[in-house]
Prior knowledge:
It is built from six helices and eleven strands. It has a single domain (24-186), classed as Glutaredoxin (3-Layer(aba) Sandwich). The strands form three sheets. A seven-stranded mixed β-sheet has the order 4-3-7-6-5-10-11, sandwiched between helices. The chain has helices at residues 6-10, 28-39, 74-91, 110-119, 133-143, 180-186; strands spanning 2-3, 16-17, 44-46, 51-52, 62-67, 97-102, 127-131, 147-150, 153-156, 159-163, 169-174. It is of the alpha+beta class. Strand 8 (147-150) and strand 9 (153-156) form a beta hairpin. 34% of the residues lie in helices and 24% in strands.
Amino acid sequence: MSRASPLLAAIGLAGTLSACAAAGPLAGGRADAARSIVESSWSWTDDQGISSTFARWRGSTIVTTGFFGACTLRCPMTIDKLREMDDILRSHGRFAEFVLVTIDPDHDTVERLRRLKESRHLPSRWHLLRGSREDTRAFGSVLGLNVARDSNHIDHDVKVAVLDAAGTLVRTFSGWNFGEDDILAATD
Length: 188
């Protein structure tokens, strides 16, 4: 794992960055925290302007991650990995709700999320969400997502979480180093 720059550490914004770390399941306490994603009162607005909570997808497998629209490296790679994941699931007759939460709600407006979805040709069934700063931080905390802000740049972990139909966290992948067998095992 790499660490944020000494400058970011010195000003208290450092977070552990693990863009390419190995995938692994989470320990017990985090499963309860992840269930809180589905049971939370966090309020989101999706790329269509519809207000929602994660309870909307209760009863479905949920694949979720944090991202931001202006990202030029990690987020596009993560979105590509999510497409691959969606394709693998569908080819095996499995389906999941893909719910991407912006970690930059100040800049990622509903209109920006809509344009991003269109420009990246993301499936219409995917959900891009924005919420308050507080709800966004709480979501990131549950995922163990470390975010470091420096001027206009946001550096962050790559975490992809899979929640089962009950809202229990089944697996968190750190980075993009996971394949078909991992994806299928996480969505059994």
